[in-house]
Structure formats: C-alpha cells, structure tokens
Amino acid sequence: MEGVRTTAELLSAGLSAGRIRRLVRDGALCPLRPGVYATAATVSSLVRDARDERARQAGGQLLRVAATLAVTGSRSAGSHRSAALVYGLGLVGRPESVTEITRSPGGRGSYTGRLGVRVHIAALPADHVVSYRGVPLTSVPRTVVDLARVLPFAEGVAVADSALHAGLTSKSALAVVIADCPRWRGLQRARDVAAFSDARAESVLESLSRAIFHQAGLPPPD
User: Fold this and answer.
1) Within 10 Å of residue 23's Cβ, how many Cβ atoms?
2) 3-state helix, strand, coil in the chain (%, to 5)
3) Residues 61-98: pLDDT tens digits?
4) N or C: which end of the chain has fewer CB within 10 A?
5) pLDDT digits (tens, 9 = 90+) for 21-65
6) Which residues are CB-neighbours of 30 under 8 A, at least 6 positions away?
7) Cβ neighbours, 10 Å, residue 28
C-alpha cells in the first residue's frame, strides 16, 4: 500500500533512525506495528476522514492488513475476518484484535505470535485475490467461502447473505470458488451455506434467525 513502509524501506530511502523517531514524534509517521509505519496522510484518508464508524473500522483493518503483509513475507493476502471487515460483511460478535492472512504453501517469510497474526496456509489462485487500494485481499467470494468453512453454519450464512445483499458476490461466484477447492476442510459446510444463503436478508439478525429456524426444522420466516 502506498504510504505504508517498513523501517528497512525508510532507511534504504535515506532516512536515519533518528529522523524516523522525529517523524513519529511529530505525527508525520504513525506506527502500525513494530517496524512498520504509515504516513499521517494515509491514516487520515482511511480512518480519520472516514464518513462513518463502519468506514473507519474498514480503513483501520486495511491498514493492519497492509502492515502485517509488510512483515510476513511473499505470496500472502489479507483473508477471513480481516478481509470481511474491510468489505463490510456481516460478521457476528466483536472484531478480533488478530489480523488474519492466508499464505500460499510456497510463500516465503515468517511471523510470530507477538505480532497478533493468524496465518492460514492455503492455495491462492490468481482469481481468488484482488488488490484493494494496493493491498492484496482474498476476493469477496473466496472470503465468504473461507469463513463458511470455519464458522458455525448460522454465522457463515450471515456473512454470505450480507455479501449477496450488497451485490458484492453471487451464488455462481461462490460455486466457482467451491469448485476450485474440492478437498478443503469444511467445504461441505461451505456448500450448505452457499445453497441456503439469500440476497433478500437485510441484517445479521435476520440471517441468524433464518439459519436457526432451518437447523431446528421449522418453516422459514418470511
């Protein structure tokens, strides 16, 4: 992402360690995580000047993903809950403080628990990744399928419904991603979520109610 740099990149650009500290003290550089900084203008455009709380949350999450990818190596993308927060999908519960990324099995780099990073190792076909304001993220359909594989059924439905309702994906796009990953753990649950999802659902609570009725064998609410 333009405006996000590591300490090594700033040093190679000619800034001294003392100059970096002064820029941080003066507010021109904002620390995102150890060894990674964003310019004040970048933080303002994504967070401080955001139109509402949802946009601020999405912008802050995008910055955290960009900072995480800067130190976790190659062939990675923001994914799962982190990507869902950027897209504004219908997650249940409070956002976690952990940043989630997916790295291809052949990717290089490392991470530590102290960084607050959860790394998923999985293939990242080119059409499963998009550049969102310069930050690699799993696409909306891949993000929906990833979460449907790991979340409880009702929560996966809430994510899928919100993506469909917002016009960010389609059932056919979800089917394509599912077909690309035939042996992945949790894929049957993802198939069930995709089949049950409904673009008419207008809120997370509505989606949860539909899913709970379905699991209880009750007629669906209309």
Assistant:
1) 17
2) 50, 15, 35
3) 999 999 999 988 678 999 999 999 999 999 998 877 89
4) C
5) 999 999 999 999 999 999 999 999 999 877 888 889 999 999 999
6) 24, 37, 38, 39, 40, 43
7) 13
- Determine the Cα–Cα distance for residues 120 and 103; give it in Å rounded to an integer: 6
**What CA–CA distance (Å, rounded) separates 102 from 40?**
28
Which band of pLDDT confidence, cut at 50, 70 and 90, is reported for residue 108? low
For residue 221, give both structure tokens.
């609410």
d(CA 42, CA 135): 13
Contact indicator for 144, 129 with CB cutoff of 8 Å: no
Residues with Cβ within 8 Å of residue 161, at least 6 apart in sequence: 90, 197, 198, 199, 201, 206, 207, 210
How many C-beta neighbours within 10 Å does residue 7 have? Answer: 15
Residues in the chain: 222
Residues in contact with 52: Cβ distance below 8 Å, sequence separation at least 6, in sequence order? none
In the block, tokens 């394509």 appear at: 176
How much is the pTM?
Answer: 0.91
- Which one, of 199, 89, 201, lies nearest residue 138 by Cα? 89
Tokens of 88: 């504004």
Cα separation values, 144 from 5, 33, 92, 197, 216, Å: 30, 27, 13, 11, 24
Q: What beta strand segments (E) does 51-174 contain?
A: 76-78, 99-103, 117-121, 129-132, 135-138
Helix-helix angle 187-196:171-180, to 10 degrees: 170
For the record, the structure tokens of 138 come out as 């799993």
